User: What shape does this take?
Amino acid sequence: MQQTEQKQLEEIIEKFYNTDSAIIKRNIIKYIDASIYKNQYITDQIGVDIQTIYLYRQPQKKTKVTFENAIKLCNVIGISITKLMEG
Assistant: This one.
């Protein structure tokens, strides 16, 4: 990975963690619902417990989505990570 790519990745990660978790969760709900995938398939693909996905789908809960899980989720449902940060 080139230094410029690393810098871009660093900026994306920083933006992700500075985005309100309720926005990220609302977008997770939106994009999972728009996808053809069910919660169980997604959990199998990203390697988390089904309860984790259920918590991600509840914006009022204080559960934080990790960047690593967000990237994996985006890869499964076919969207870019920046889509999760759009408010």
